[in-house]
Amino acid sequence: MPPLTRLVRPTTAPIKPTRVSWIAYSRGFAMSTGAAETDTQAANAASTSGVTVSSLEQTLKEKLGAEHVEIEDMSGGCGQAFNAMIVSQQFDKKNTLARHRLVNSALKTEIAAIHAWTPRCFTPEEWVKKQNEAGR
Q1: What is the 3-state secondary structure (H, E, C) of 23-80?
Q2: DSSP label at residue 34
Q3: Contact at 8 Å (CB) between 87 and 127?
Q4: pTM, 2 dp
Q5: 100-131: per-residue pLDDT in tens?
C-alpha cells in the first residue's frame, strides 16, 4: 500500500467526479437528503415504507400479547421515527436490554424500514405504578 501522502490531493487541485456520480448526473438523477419537503412527500414516503403507527401497534399486540401500546410518530408523518410505550406480561423478570431485544425481534422487518425506534417497555404492574405516580 502506498504511503498516505500519495493518496492526499493538494487542496488547489480540482477534484474530478467519480464515474458513478458522473453517470448519475448525466442521466438526470439528483442527489437527495431523503427528507420529505412537503406533506405530500411525507405521505408518499409513509405509504411506500409500509410502516405506520397502526401496523406497529397491531404487530406488537399480536406477537407480544401487549396489553397497552402507545406509539407516536416523531417524524412528522413520514413514518421514519417512532417513540413507543409497550405494556406486556412477557417483560416480567427481564431487564431493559432483554425487553428491547424482545421488541426488536418482534418488529425486525419494520425496524429495518425505519430510521429511529425508541421503545419504553413496562410490565402491567410497572405500568399501574407509573400511572398512579403520574396521577398524584
Answers
A1: HHHHCCCCCCCCCCCCHHHHHHHHHHHCCCHHHHHHHHHHHHCCCEEEEEECCCCCCC
A2: S
A3: yes
A4: 0.63
A5: 999 999 999 999 988 899 999 999 999 999 99
